Amino acid sequence: MPKALIATDGSDHALDAAKRATDLLAPGTEYTLLTVEPPPVVPEAAPVMGLDTVPITSPEAAEELTEAYREEANESLERTARVLGGEAARRVEYGDAATEITRVAEEDGFDVIVVGSQGAGFVKRVLMGSVSQHLLHHAPCPVLVVRATDHS
Q1: In whole angstroms, what is the distance from residue 82 CA to residue 89 CA?
Q2: DSSP readout, 62-86?
Q3: DSSP code at position 133
Q4: Which of 137, 63, 139 is nearest to 106 (CA)?
Q5: pLDDT of amino acid 128
Q6: Residue 118 CB contacts under 8 Å (≥ 6 apart), including other chains
Q7: pLDDT (0 to 100) of residue 129
Q8: Nearest to residue 117, comparing CAs of 101, 92, 136?
Q9: Residue 115 pairs with which residues in a beta bridge?
């Protein structure tokens, strides 16, 4: 049975890419949904004049931010699973999206990676680079890049 890794950020474009992939891939394909969030926040200390270090953020604030990332990841996966009819494994990883998608695809032996051609927004793309571009050059298997459709 073929295995497809669908990378999603929960955006409308990612949902559309997931749905279109199910129309294009063979019936019986086993789907795994993957979302990649920033690494969990760890309170760090920074040097300050006259003091050795002071915390940049409190442990409580770090936990709140980490929990917000976790909730966002789970919501992204649930939205995508609903589009697919609920029949998909779900997975959350933390780190750089392109690197983590490539790693998961290689470690778990996926036959294809499905990704939208655009992520959550322009600023995110500029700061993080193009995930789909990275995958096309580094993925261990074929990559299906689904272009955005005009819903107007």
Answers
A1: 12
A2: HHHHHHHHHHHHHHHHHHHHHHTTT
A3: H
A4: 139
A5: 45
A6: 13, 125, 148
A7: 53
A8: 136
A9: 145
Structure tokens at 12: 């409308």
Residue carrying the six token digits 């063979």: 26
Question: Is the distance from CB of 31 to CB of 112 less than 8 angstroms?
Answer: no
Length of the chain: 152
Range from 28-32, 33-37, 77-81, 146-150 carrying the lowest mean pLDDT: 146-150
Element of type H or E holding 145: strand 143-146
pTM to 2 decimal places: 0.79
pLDDT tens by residue, 13-67: 889 999 999 899 998 899 999 999 887 666 565 555 555 554 556 777 778 888 8
CA distance 105 to 1: 16
CA 112/CA 17 separation, integer angstroms: 13
